[in-house]
Description:
Blueprint: H1 3-21, H2 40-62, H3 72-83, H4 88-108, H5 120-138
Helix pairs in contact: 1-5, 2-3, 2-4, 2-5
Amino acid sequence: xxxxxxxxxxxxxxxxxxxxxxxxxxxxxxxxxxxxxxxxxxxxxxxxxxxxxxxxxxxxxxxxxxxxxxxxxxxxxxxxxxxxxxxxxxxxxxxxxxxxxxxxxxxxxxxxxxxxxxxxxxxxxxxxxxxxxxxxxxxx
Length: 140
């Protein structure tokens, strides 16, 4: 995959993720049940966290360092506990900042084919679909 294709895939899915969030009343973003016990606010923080993790992994790979498989469930649990009391504004700011860093660094990292960022946009798509299903079921 070329750098341009990677960025295009990430951008397309990112924009669709943001569109799925658009218009959700702030008062409804803390309701659990969108993805398991996660609320929309929790998913926003979850996306921020995994963009940060994807970037850290890509930077290690670009330096030629070994990357161990993630214990993603434990990581999700720790991250949720660490940020469950953050406000929607805090989670949203963190999400946009981590995504901006991911995209900016992707533009300059060497060996784009070895960075293993091909899970980034399917992750956005997965949670976009959950948000849209929740919105449909809740009439939001």
